[in-house]
Amino acid sequence: MRSADLLGFAVGAARGNRLRTALLMLAMAIGVAAVVTLTALGDGARRYVVREFSAIGSNLLIVLPGRTATGGINPGSFVSGTPRDLTVDDAQALLRAPAVQRVAPLTVGTSELSVGGRLREGMVIGATAEFIDVRQLRMAQGRFLPAQDWNRGKQVMVIGAKLRNELFPNEAALGQFVRVGDRRFRVIGVLAPTGSGLGMNTDELAIVPVPLALAMFNTNSLFRILVEARNRDAIEPARRQVSEIIKARHDGEEDVTVITQDAMLATFDRLLGTLTLGVAGIAAISLAVAGILVMNVMLVSVAQRRSEIGLLKALGASNGTIRMAFLAEAALLSAAGALAGYALGLAGAALIRALYPQFPAYPPDWAVLAGLGTALGTGLLFGVLPARNAARLDPVAALARR
Q1: Distance CA 26, CA 375 (A)
Q2: Following CA atoms 380, 381, 384, 385 in sequence, which dihedral angle do they give, to the nearest 10 degrees?
Q3: How many CA atoms lie less than 13 Å away from 244 in the CB half-sphere?
Q4: Please, which pLDDT band fits residue 25 given cuts at 50, 70 and 90?
Q5: Among 55, 7, 38, 397, which residue's Cα sits nearest to residue 202?
Q6: Residue 360 in 3-state DSSP?
């Protein structure tokens, strides 16, 4: 029997019982759609986290107060305890490190911002002129904080794009005054829209000189110190030098954690990659279930078509031809269901992107190929037994059942 005849036999058998064919294809489609959609979700989470970390700058190190265990980086690293404060003097001392290009001390707090009758609770960051370069931000209007003594600061402010629209909806923001707590700051710049980075939406920030923020929040402790290495090759030397300088300043105690951007990315990439594989494995179980359904349906099909099989064998069809005919039918149904599931999975991923535009939910190529390949392989694997049963039928006995 030629390949065209095998395909015609499989198509004819599928058309002969449309309900059975539709249910079998649906089972296979659900399995493939689950694999595609769930891996798109998992890989989208991985890409989102990588993008968030990449948005905070290149060649970056983050100095956190408190010592974190060396077992790796986890979300708890960002809310670690503080046995000893990080100060502005600590940040200035890091400029002595040969591998360090820029240092940006940060303090963070929330306060009430008011302009005229408009009131808003917002996040206020104390920073220096280096912050815009370390974070690779851009200005939409005006200029960033001026370079000045880190222990003194002018009462000026830079605001995010969203905050500017809320505080100054119908007027220019530059030159206007914003009251933060009991202080007044003159707006000298507006940041270009950039979105979130590390859970901090720069479009909603109010940035003031770090000494004034420390005074407002009545603290001497910095939230973090951002350090930019001179180049990618200098990241590890910069990490060692930063640790040594802080250790020397803190009486020989290693009471800070220095996280490199690569370490953060590698850790989250590994965790979320494992998660993606896990959800793909769970979804693939449904393909095994669909394969068992293929076997059951094909066994029933063999029982119902005994006379047809007997006639084919009486006309000279060999056992191998009968096996190939039924395997072709199983492969056709599995492939059709897999393609329908692929389309369904792409639709599900597109729906996720439409509901959450910031979430890059695209199925990875390996997941698509694995889903389609597993569906086809499962259909063939579970189609072997019915095909063998069909090939073993005695033509006389099969025809006698008519």
Answers
A1: 12
A2: -140
A3: 12
A4: confident
A5: 55
A6: coil
CA–CA separation, 365 and 345 (whole Å): 13
Give the pLDDT band of residue 69 (cuts 50, 70, 90). very low
Residue carrying the six token digits 């020989």: 252
3-state secondary structure of 347: helix
- Helices 306-314 and 319-355: crossing angle in degrees, nearest 10, is 130
Helix ranges (DSSP H) in 250-318: 261-304, 306-314
Token look-up 């698509």 returns 368
In 3D space, the residue among 145, 171, 148 whose CA is nearest the CA of residue 159 turns out to be: 145
Matching residue, tokens 């200035």? 92
Distance of alpha carbon 49 from alpha carbon 3, whole angstroms: 49
Structure tokens at 86: 């990080």
Full-prediction pTM beyond 0.70? no
Find tokens 């005695």 and name the residue: 394
**27 class by beta-carbon count within 10 Å (0-12 exposed, 13-18 middle, 19+ buried):** buried
173, 167 Cβ separation under 8 angstroms: yes
pLDDT digits (tens, 9 = 90+) for 241-283: 999 999 999 888 888 888 887 676 677 677 777 777 777 777 7
Distance between the two ends of the chain, CA-based, in angstroms? Answer: 24
- Cross-strand partners of 197: 200
**Average pLDDT of the chain, as a whole number:** 80
Q: What is the rounded distance in angstroms from the CA atom of residue 61 to the CA atom of residue 76? A: 17
d(CA 221, CA 212): 13
Task: Look up residue 52 and give its two tokens.
Answer: 């968030």
Q: How many other C-beta atoms lie within 10 A of the C-beta of residue 275?
A: 16
Distance of CA 352 to the CA centre of its chain: 12
Distance CA 184, CA 114 (A): 9
Residue 71 CA to residue 257 CA, distance in Å, equals 12
State the Cα–Cα distance between residues 192 and 69, nearest whole angstrom: 37
Q: What is the pLDDT of residue 244?
A: 92
What is the CB neighbour count within 10 angstroms for residue 80?
Answer: 14
- pLDDT range class, residue 79, cuts 50, 70, 90: very low
Tokens of 348: 């599900």
d(C-alpha 155, C-alpha 174), whole Å: 14
